[in-house]
Amino acid sequence: MRHFSCDICGDSIHDEHYVVKIELFAAFDPDELHETDFDADHLAMITEEVAAIESGQVEAPRESGVQRLRFDLCEGCRGRFLDDPLGRDALGRVNYSEN
Ligand SMILES: [Zn+2]
Q1: Which residues contact 52 (CB under 8 A, 6 or more apart)?
Q2: Other beta carbons less than 10 A from residue 74's beta carbon
Q3: 72, 77, 82, 83 alpha-carbon torsion, rounded to 10°
Q4: Rg, C-alpha atoms of the chain
Q5: pLDDT in tens, 46-81
Q6: How far is the CA of 91 from the centre of ligand 1 (A)?
Q7: Distance 74 CA to ligand 1 centre (A)
Q8: Phi, psi of 77, deg, nearest 5
Q9: 45 confidence band (pLDDT: 50, 70, 90)
Q10: Residue 20 and residue 8: Cα distance in Å, rounded?
């Protein structure tokens, strides 16, 4: 059996094992669409871009790529994660201590 340790507290996971998967990617903002966007031949544009990237002319856009993160959590940290998935409490505490 594979051994897992919790990515938050570092303890070995013996009983309940939880997995958090996060996908992070650049949001598409429909407000920024212009009417001309609907006329453009997007498939041709994408094909051109991909060809340019593949031939090394253009560097692949790094920031718009999807980042997939995976964390193993123990039961206790699962609850803590659900209470504050973005770690806002921790950020708040840092801010308070600076005052
Ligand atoms: Zn834990």
Answers
A1: 58
A2: 23
A3: -160
A4: 21
A5: 888 888 878 877 666 555 688 999 999 999 999 999
A6: 19
A7: 4
A8: -75, -25
A9: confident
A10: 11
The mean per-residue pLDDT over the stretch 12-21 comes to: 93
- Residue found under tokens 């507290």: 9
CA of 88 to the centre of ligand 1 (A): 18
Give the total residue count for the chain. Answer: 99
Measured in angstroms, how far is the CA atom of residue 69 from the centroid of ligand 1? 17
CA dihedral 17, 19, 20, 24 (to 10 degrees): 160
Distance CA 75, CA 41 (A): 50
- Top-confidence residue, 90 or 26: 26
Distance between CA atoms of 11 and 17, rounded to whole angstroms?
11
pTM of the model: 0.55
Kindly give the distance from the C-alpha atom of residue 12 to the centroid of ligand 1, in angstroms, as a whole number: 8
Mean pLDDT of all residues belonging to the chain: 81
